[in-house]
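Task: fold both queries, return tokens.
Query 1:
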Amino acid sequence: MAIFSVYVVNKAGGLIYQLDRPAPRADAERTFSFPLELVLRPRDERVVVAFGQRDGIRVGHAVLAINGAEVNGRTTADGQDVLEFLGNPANYPVTIRFGRHRLSSNEKLMLASMFHSLFAIGSQLSPELGSSGIEMLETDTFKLHCFQTLTGIKFVVLADPKQTGIDALLRKIYEIYSDFALKNPFYSLEMPIRCELFDQNLKLALEAAEKAGPFGPGS
């Protein structure tokens, strides 16, 4: 899996479409004795690892399950506070599953709005007039690519750093948006995209881009 997700953000900064590609989760499940060797802290309604990476467990990973039961944010399946439960020696040994949490719909909306603001800030900070704003952000595990149309719609693709041809893919997504969303008589501008043909053709475009591989047309 080389292309992870696609976002479409309207000119006001609202998320109007989002697609996550299915990918294997790199969860790590381990059994611990008391005291817990990891330092856990509450963050954004979750309990995450603050210190003590080991055995595939990394700083920032969230507690996903305890003794096989999924946790609900900061509480266990039976309603107990996760940190209080793990702080009680009577509950050990305990099996904990860690991993990256799935973003909620509200978090995706918030992040789309934040990127919209960063895009505008990037444009304003440019020493040259008429800067396009942020076109790419790179980390060690993914690249974020953005293409903004003349009307202010932003198409954002998150992909593996080795994936090429993303510039062409972004323009293909714009073409699909024009053909299957804008020309749909039931679609209203700036509103969430709920068009089956748009979904189908977008997925086909992503599959074609991935088959081109890391040695396809340069991005």
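Query 1 returned. Query 2:
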Amino acid sequence: MCCLTRVLALALALLWAPWRVLHGAPLAELSGDQDFQLFLHKNLEFTRKIKGDVAALQRVVCDTFQLCQEEELLLVRQDLGIAQAPLEQCHSRTFHAEACFSQIRNGLRVYQGSLAAVRELLPRHAGLVETLQLDAANLSSNIQQQVEDLGLATVTFPTEGRDPLPAFSSRFHHQVGGFFILANFQRFLETAYRALRHLARL
């Protein structure tokens, strides 16, 4: 029991450590910049808006196809091979702004493309999906412009695993694929939102 307690304590410490480290990141020279703070606060609101639209589409998928719980679909997910766009640079011990912004930007492009499968799946909600794609593109552009304005280096990550979406073998697989695209995008946005929020508090 004693060992288990120590393991749990270590696990909790590791969960919280990334954000404590983020507060100590070498961004002091940016934290007081008014334009940078304006960028952060504006895009926090933008990210929150995008999260709300993704949540609305998740409710549509749940109501339309009765696909609501990830736990019930994990075996199908393995067959589909739909991966989460990485954001480890936004919450790791090695956090730095350039890498985090690059991963957010790259991930937004991935999801902008992936949402095409959701648009095909929900033709009656195509307008909302297209708005979401446009918002993802605009947020990515905002970040790219800010990176350039700040003179930050652009970080390039390997593109393995970023292949186009698989050809769904059945209507059900397409439905499950759409479910996981939205679930992954929501998690991605939550991590991006936390990163922007913590930068704003530095």
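Both queries returned. Flag for query 2: Residues 32-154+165-200 form a domain with the Growth Hormone; Chain: A; fold (CATH 1.20.1250.10).
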